[in-house]
Amino acid sequence: MKKVLLALSLVANIGLAKEKVVVLHAGSLAVPFSDMEKAFEAKYPQYDVVREAAGSRACARKITDIHKPADVMASAAYKVIDNLLIPNYAKFNVHFVTNEMAIAYTPKSKYANEINEKNWTDIFLREGVKVGHSNPNMDPCGYRSILVTKIAEKYYKQDGFYNKLMGYGESYENGEERKEKVIVRPKETDLLGLIEAGVYDYLYIYKSVAEQHGLKYIVLPPEVSLQDKKFSDSYKGATFKITGKKPGSYITKKGSAMVYGITVVENEKEGLPKNREGAVKFVNFVLSPEGQDIMKRNGQGVITPPVITGDASILGR
């Protein structure tokens, strides 16, 4: 009798086993996607969403270079999906939300009571002031930080601002940083604990992330913040080289309005994704009115209707 009961128990447990949906996503999506996970699992209790946050390019590299099993990829820059995943690892790209760059700080930051949207470039160059940004080769927030610095130099008519602050030249080689002025980490969310601990003073970060973590922040002019397509012509005047698909190759990034992308990961040769049905349901949930409300509550603009490139027929769109 005990053996029969044990067998029945095992069968019941197997029946209750949930299917995993593996989601790799940008660090800046950690908070909204945590909310998304809970809401999705409440609606679809047969699934267990397993999330992993990293820089968007780092996420893509995990898929392309080490063939990490994944079902969904969400990037803080839609072009990461276009450049690194399509056509071999994804068939479509959905532009679904927007954001903007801001300058975050804490009460511990030097000149915190003085800084504003007009004088931040002057304060950044003051002796003893340290600034943080993420690695441009791993995270779109990193190269956007550099592009914003270049745009700001022109907008504020402050000659030499970029070189005085960062001095990377045309590309960020070998992960070097100007230790007297700049702190660099793989993704922008890696820098949050350091600024809160007073290791450095100011952080280039997405406005939504600053809001989510209760940081003080400077709202940059739309001509600088990469928020508004209206200023696309001036944005694209700033350029920076990041590493490409192959070692020794580069991609030139141009300033542009910030647009996030999401896709279902697939590679027929490697048998990815593991859970295609769950992946499709998750992406459609993100794009649903409920998913859009979650993004709005977390400080991100929503693209309605979403812009889809490629073959997204599996989404029923």
UniProtKB/TrEMBL annotation:
An example molecular function term from Gene Ontology annotations: molybdate ion binding
One Pfam family this sequence matches:
SBP_bac_11
InterPro entries xrefs = ABC_trnspt_W-bd_WtpA, ModA/WtpA
Q: Which family does it belong to?
A: Belongs to the bacterial solute-binding protein 1 family. WtpA subfamily.
Q: Which NCBIfam families match?
A: PRK04168.1 (NF003196), tungstate_WtpA (TIGR03730)
What CDD domains does this protein map onto? PBP2_ModA_WtpA
Gene Ontology process terms (BP): molybdate ion transport
Q: Per its record, how is this protein called by name? A: Tungstate ABC transporter substrate-binding protein WtpA
